[in-house]
Amino acid sequence: MRVWILLAALVAAPAFAGEELAEMNAVSRVWDRYANLSSHTDSISVDLFADSSVKHFGFLRDAALYASPEQLRRIPAADRLLVYLLRSSQSAEALQAMEPAAVARLLVQQGWVGVNSQGSGQPLPTLTQVTVLDGLAVGEFATPTESQFQFGPDFVKQEDGWKFRYESLVPDASLGIEQAIRSSGLDSTRLLEITLARMLDAGDNPPALAVLDRPLRDDPASRTRLNEIWPDYDLTYRHRYAAVRRKAGAGDGLSQYVIGMLMVSGSQPRYIEQDEAAGIALLEQASDNGNADAAEVLARSLFSDPSQLDDARLRRILPHVRRAAEAGRAEAMTLLGLFYLEGAGGLTADCRQAAEWQARGEEAGIAHARNEQVWTWATCPVAGQRDPGKALALVQHMVAQRDQLTGGELDTIAAAFAANGDFAQAIDFQQQAIAKLGAEQMEKKARTATLKRMRARLAGYRRGRDYVQDYDTFAEIRAGTY
Prior knowledge:
This protein is mainly alpha-helical. It folds into two domains: 18-228, no CATH class; 303-479, Serine Threonine Protein Phosphatase 5, Tetratricopeptide repeat (Alpha Horseshoe), CATH 1.25.40. Helix content is 59%, strand content 5%. It contains 23 helices and four strands. The chain has helices at residues 21-39, 51-66, 69-74, 77-89, 92-97, 100-109, 170-184, 188-199, 209-212, 220-228, 235-249, 253-265, 276-288, 292-302, 311-326, 330-342, 351-363, 369-379, 388-400, 407-419, 423-439, 444-462, 473-479, and strands at residues 129-132, 136-142, 150-158, 161-165. Strands 1-2-3-4 form a four-stranded antiparallel sheet, with helices on both faces. It starts with 20 loop residues before the first helix and ends with a helix.
């Protein structure tokens, strides 16, 4: 559709290869010619349509003739608008006499199908990238963003060369129409009537959708046949996912992230079968290629089974946690701080680095990162790096919110006071921590172990002894006791 053709798409990922350059250029030339011709409402542009597209316009003709209101509602918005235009402008007899290609030519000549005209002040869209598959090509209108590809049309190779699949743009154009309706604040029926009036040059007399919803001919047999020739609108997305797969295989980080996520989650089984192991492998490749989204998701996925958090797993996770943290991902910053505190994943234990990353995590919005910093400075086991004064300064904000804190956070406050020799306060807060933890939801094994550690610290405070962390957090997590 002329009005909607430049609207954004979902995801795509064309892959470049030297031997495919000629084919890619051929595809781009087909698109450029189509864009130029259709922008001048030149019906010769129909010659560039794939056979499937010509057939598609035959479906639109039949829908204009026979589709019931229920069938119309199934048709994507961009095609439904064309059906309304055909019903508004053509008689049943005229439509019945038209071959599918003639319908396409009519729509182009009227300016209802094609690329934005040059008079609109917009440059004609060009393909920035093309992915060539077996007899199929998928184009992009713009360079990918950090998280999304900018899909364009797709093409098929026929005996007479590459041809444009007009119907490949229908899903995106329809999505754009639906978004415009939602953002307009108008009733969808009213907005469509206004749009039709403008496209038909009907001025202040827009056609009534209540009338256009009725078929030009009431023919039950033809309505049944319409169901049997219904377009496969999903094919466009299957082509796009095929292109993403191709580029993922060629080492593109964003494509590896997209396919890896879908494999791990199994959220799009129509396009990508769930395969968690293969998905994790792709996410690792994407992260290694610098994709911070993949790094963040991968770190979370590899942490999903605490029983697997041995040294080998932690070494595998660390590069991705670091990559995500360095890209500004808040949770990863705090987690990297824990790696430094524990000396995990091959790192040398470093409380200063730990607290620095925890502070950055707090700045990025992680509420519990303040607790982590206080614990690090108060209980740091690295000689010469413990700093009770910093712990005491940071803990005051937590003390002011004591009634809202968890048992674990009250435990941290107690450790900070003990580190500064205030054992009366330490004992008071530790007793509160133990009482609070007892009422919190927690796995029984973890609760028992945590209470044991808390009571041991309380006994130490009563003897005038502060606390230095003496356990491996990741080992406790792995054992289910944290």
